[in-house]
Amino acid sequence: MTEKKTRFxxxxxxxxxxxxxxxxxxxxxxxxSEGTFVYVSNGEDANIAVMRLNPETxxxxxxxxxxxxxxxxxxxxxxxxxxxxxxxxxxxxSVITYLIDSETGNLTQISKEPLPDNMVYISVDxxxxxxxxxxxxxxxxxxxxxxxxxxxxxxxEPVQVIPTxxxxxxxxxxxxxxxxxxxxxxxxxxxxxxxxxxxxxxTPNDPSAVYTKDGxxxxxxxxxxNSGFVYLSNEMDGVVYSYKMDNKTGILTETQRISAIPSNIxxxxxxxxxGNGAPKMGDGEVTTAGxxxxxxxxxxxxxxxxxxxxxTITAFAVDRHSGNLTYIESYDTEKIPRxxxxxxxxxxxxxxxxxxxxxxxxxxxxxxxxxxxxxxxESGKEPNWVEIVEFS
Length: 392
Hints:
Blueprint: H1 2-7, H2 14-27, E1 35-42, E2 47-53, E3 60-67, E4 72-77, E5 83-88, E6 94-100, E7 107-114, E8 119-124, E9 130-135, E10 141-147, E11 160-164, E12 172-173, E13 179-184, E14 189-195, E15 202-211, E16 218-223, E17 229-234, E18 239-245, E19 252-259, E20 291-296, E21 302-307, E22 312-318, E23 325-332, E24 337-342, E25 348-353, E26 358-364, E27 371-378, E28 383-391
Antiparallel strand pairs: 1-2, 1-28, 2-3, 4-5, 5-6, 6-7, 8-9, 9-10, 10-11, 12-13, 13-14, 14-15, 16-17, 17-18, 18-19, 20-21, 21-22, 22-23, 24-25, 25-26, 26-27
């Protein structure tokens, strides 16, 4: 009885819980229906927009808007795509669990649990049994691991809360589920952890961190599909770092730095391109570039980075053998593109404009990696994060 009270002390009716448990018990015997759905968190509207994506044309149609909470921001999907998790960054700081309807894309809230702090980023390990989160604070920053029950509910009591350096900004487990990485915007480092997927416990790797240039502001990252490389966006100087990942030890080794800043934007006067077609930043003090999100296509050929201060998306070609990036072009998009994502078929980049209230759909040229704006759609006030799921 105590456990059930903890799960629903945020006002979720008991009959809803019973309905959800019934649905979950039936889920194992039901096959998923076809459908691609896009979820966009609208921070100021305190809701999540649910849209259906046509995977061939890129057309988006609004399905519904689901209540979440003021300042709802980052979201994460369970590996089996049955659940969507959303971080509410207003008091009481919490994570909401939604059950995803595979036929319609509709969301049903099934729990709301407290998190240790105002958590700026959440993700789920590859087993779906643990939720990772970080708080973006100068002081008293935290890394947390919360267990997830077999019913999809995030448990309120963390497995681990780790005090850490200033401004951790994201956290992900690698595809093998052995290693976890946490970029720290405030002290120019990426912490490296060993992950025990049985207990959920994080242990510092050796070395415990790799370092970026002072003041660079490491923010978000993504893994290449072959798990051989890691790509890191740096918010302050606009540089993308490429790393070779040792699949046995989890240690990252830097292999390249390349600017994501459009060639017509100057934080400092740019120096000539460094042989790879990309504008090169100067070495002096710079203001923030506003580089935010980063994602690689499922086939590993193209990488895209959002640049908030110029309201653009930068495209790179990926050498799948060396892991090196080559600058393609920067493309105008929504105002302040805080979150972006790529559909599971690698056909489209979908962009949330934090100050435009819209999302844009850009088609990916599979031969060149170039982007073409197809259309834009109303989402809500302050759209900031995008998750995409496909059922087939």
